[in-house]
Amino acid sequence: LHETWGSNNTLSGDLGSWSLTSTADTSASFGGGPGSPPDGSYRNGWDGYGNISLTSPSMDLTDYALRSRGYPSDSQTVTDTRVMVTAWVFSESADNASEDLEFWVSGDNGSTWNLVYRDASNEDTGTHRGWVQMKADISAYIQKGTNTKIRFKSTGGGGGDRYGVGKIFIHESPIPTQIGHLGFHHNEIRLGAVPI
């Protein structure tokens, strides 16, 4: 799966319609943000401060629910493969307040959310390092019987801040979860069924 956006600052893309939400204390302008990512692709961007969330439509990733979660065998594929999200992200602070761009995932179609990645490259510096390529493992959050959503969320204090999200890829990891009897599980490595 991928999201390449149809043009700059659009909420409609390859995956469907995204939603943009903000808290009541937010002062932001959607459609601002930085220039294009290094690959020249389209991006969504916004200026301002406060909590602003860019949330994906629902995605059916059920076939990638991990075996290690204890799901029984049935006619539906349950895998050992890791699912990764790779995306261009940008966050810039115009002051010395903390501005982060966070990546969240929901394995129950948006009922609960889990923080997976935080781009805090500009924290308390008043500078930024430009576009960076985020890589996040969402395997542990995919569930059977329900859809998955992803979310990019800005958290800012101060003002004049800029955020951006470019091309997004949702893909299988090139590194398998199981290599012989060696398994990579959430927060541990196992040899067979024994944590090491």
Mean pLDDT level: 75
Number of strands: 17
List low-pLDDT spans: 176-196
Largest sheet: 6 strands, antiparallel
Note the beta-strand portion: 35-45%
What is the element string, with H for helices and E for strands? EEEEEEEEEEEEEEEEE
| Tally of DSSP helical segments | 0
Measure the end-to-end span: 34 Å
Question: What keywords describe this structure?
Answer:
196 residues, mainly beta, 6-stranded antiparallel beta sheet, 5-stranded antiparallel beta sheet, disordered C terminus
Q: How do the helices and strands line up, and which of them pair or pack?
A:
Blueprint: E1 2-3, E2 12-13, E3 16-17, E4 19-22, E5 27-30, E6 44-49, E7 52-55, E8 83-92, E9 100-106, E10 114-119, E11 132-137, E12 149-155, E13 161-172, E14 178-179, E15 182-185, E16 188-191, E17 194-195
Antiparallel strand pairs: 1-13, 2-3, 4-7, 5-6, 6-13, 7-12, 8-11, 8-13, 9-10, 9-12, 14-15, 15-16, 16-17
Description:
The protein contains no helices and 17 strands. The protein has 196 residues and is an all-beta fold. Strands 1, 5, 6, 8, 11 and 13 form a 6-stranded antiparallel beta sheet that branches. The protein is globular and about 45 Å long. The model is unreliable at 176-196 (pLDDT under 50).
Q: How would you summarize this macromolecular structure in one to three sentences?
A:
With 196 residues, the chain is mainly β. It has no helices and 17 strands.
